[in-house]
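EI: anyone free to look at a 185-residue chain?
SC: sure, send it
EI:
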Amino acid sequence: MANRGDQIIAIFTLLLLGLTLPSSHGESITVQTTKYPSKIVPELAIDIVVEGMVYCQSCNQSGTWSLHEAAPIPGARVSVICKNYKDRVSYYNVFTTTSQGYLYANLKGYQTTHPLLDHPLQSCIVKLVSSPLENCNAFSNINFGISGAALRPEKKILIGSNYQAVVYTAGPLAFRPYQCPPKQQ
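SC: here you go
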């Protein structure tokens, strides 16, 4: 006597054979499955953006980190440098400020090899490169513009259709005049 599992298999086999055998009219029965296209979801592009300001420090504030009376520098150049968790440069680019001295650096091509250790907050810095102003083109280390200003979270996200940008900030950074007139006492 066959056990219950063997009986179920035999019945199932007979049912399948019945579907493939010719019917009384000489036709065979075929089962056709239709594949419906899956819903195509466009991939969301997430960019990393660094923003900040670049100023010319006033001679009245020379020797301090104060930006009181500072003027924005249009066309100033700053670099964004990112290193991976192995301390190798993984991203480098130079960006130019707007006519108001505003830096908007979209880090196109920035990639992380390790999701936690290569996060922009830990791996990227911003440095001064050059100033177009002849009377204000000496580097200052205000907010670590020479040694590298760390990024800070801005809690700002730009959202568009199929686009998202996470915004970080650095600085403000500043150049200073090479020579300032003696202070009047």
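EI: The radius of gyration is 33 Å.
SC: 👍
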